[in-house]
Design a protein that fits this description.
The chain has 175 residues and is of the alpha+beta class. It folds into two domains: 140 residues, no CATH class; 32 residues. Helices cover 37% and strands 34% of the residues. The chain is built from four helices and ten strands; from the N terminus they run H-E-E-H-E-E-E-E-E-E-E-H-E-H. The protein is flat, with a radius of gyration of 21 Å. The termini are far apart.
């Protein structure tokens, strides 16, 4: 399955879910669907304050992909009748590999009379949504840039700490 087929499958799988799939250069972006009032109302009712999205960059030649995860503050505009009229992403942004959870339960009725069920947010569901399609198709996941930088910084800090302990030990033995 090539990148175009992967994107088409993700789009098809997103129907009826709280995810919005958008094509971007080199891949696809999957985000919480704040443009659909059904989902936006449930996010608001459950007090979800974090919008979450993943850019999935596809490398057809290597049959590999990276996931760049991003979260943003999420706020709501409520009309005079108490109905949610819009969801907006704020400016505070975090990137890299993330895990976020928000539980709760809300029940309501849509204008057409159908039942609006509760929604509990777990960022692992979005990553699983991506990975299930790609791994099943034989694609390999690579580490994204932010995670690589974090790993390098973490290992460097650990190396400096170990070096500092070694220097301190030598200094105490010699002096």
């Amino acid at each position: 399955m090539d990148g175009a087929a992967i994107v088409a499958e993700l789009e098809a799988r997103s129907v009826g879910t709280p995810y919005l799939v958008q094509r971007i250069p080199g891949g696809v972006r999957i985000a919480l669907n704040i443009t659909d009032m059904q989902w936006l109302t449930l996010f608001y009712a459950n007090g979800l304050k974090l919008g979450f999205e993943i850019d999935v960059l596809l490398d057809d030649a290597a049959r590999s992909y990276t996931r760049q995860q991003r979260s943003r503050d999420l706020s709501y505009r409520v009309g005079s009748n108490g109905q949610v009229v819009a969801g907006e992403f704020g400016a505070s942004v975090s990137q890299g590999t993330q895990r976020s959870f928000k539980g709760g339960f809300a029940v309501g009725v849509h204008n057409d009379g159908s039942l609006a069920k509760g929604y509990a947010f777990d960022s692992r569901e979005i990553t699983a949504f991506v990975d299930e399609t790609l791994i099943r198709s034989g694609w390999k996941r690579r580490m994204d840039r932010s995670s690589k930088i974090g790993l390098i910084v973490g290992l460097s800090a650990a190396g400096v700490a170990i070096l500092g302990v070694g220097v301190a030990f030598v200094a105490t033995v010699l002096f």
